[in-house]
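USER: If only I could read backbone structure tokens as easily as an amino acid sequence. It would mean a lot if you studied the pair and described how this chain folds. Here is the record:
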Amino acid sequence: MPTTPSRVFIVPPVAAFFLPVFLAFCILYFLYFAADLNRYDGESGLFQYALNDHDHFVYVTNIDRILFEDLLGYEISNDIGIAAIYMALASAFPFLVDQDYTLIALVFNCITLIGCYVIYADICNYCKLGQIGNLSFFANLSLIYFAQMINKDMLTIFAFLLAVRCGIHQRMWLLLALIPFFALVRLQLAVFILIFAFLMATPWPGWRIICLYILTSIAAGVLSIFVSIISDESLGEGFSSFLVNFNRNYYVGYLLFNPLRVIQFIFDAYASFSFSTEMGGVDMAKILRLPQLILLLLLFRPLGSLFIHFRHWLKTRARPIVLVVVAYLLTWLMNPTINARYVMLITPVLVLFALYARRYPIIGRVS
């Protein structure tokens, strides 16, 4: 059974070298691609799609709308929330603000990245994963991509890791208190936190998971009909569009097809191995995903035990990690779109679980 963790935590010596080096790569990536957006073209040259510039400029536009049009409304896609956060940062640190908000985004994202590592190392310390566990953080090169431009992804990863840590240290009150902030980042994060807290509150959450799956699936089906979360043009003509049309008639598209959508998420992530583009270049976002995806392939067997021996892991120190994965699935499957980027958000938590399951296999002694 899990034991009460120590409140004392020291960042391991490995961070003294690898964390500054990783941050240096984030800065070099910024200097090469993002420092001057006037010369950046994501669809030409050898290195393409190196930045999520589309979302960035959506958020910059919303910052301008807040500043000059007194825009205070809330949208379910919540592009206003992250814009409001950056507007507050710009007011507090005006010397970091450039025309496109790229420098302040780099600084804020790198600080968040440091926070992610500190929490990740704390979880490794609690789960006794050693130096390998700490080093595994740096296999996630997508963090370099997320460190660039205004985005919701770095804060989302931080929220997932913080949820694990709050579960470990029995500080769910802190996570619940942060719901208003995380709701500004992504409305889904507020739902995620509530689901995670609900599951953590019972020793065996099996029936709660089943009830939540039915509730969130039907709610997502209804929302896809009556609330415009994403345009039909963005959905295209694939499976996501089929689900929306199915829901318009029966409301249970997500309830029936979410298991298939999980497979789609995995397939979309591993499609990153096909990283050449039609314009003769390479997709940098896909390339940066590869080390983390390869690591998960190497850890496939212990990772698979999360679902095969689900009840067992709920009795171990991995319990908060397992329930974060469950809460993520229940929440993100409400999203009508399939995107490999969403998969990369949860991969740090998946790696933590896989390393724990590998270190403490079921046939051996469980800590």
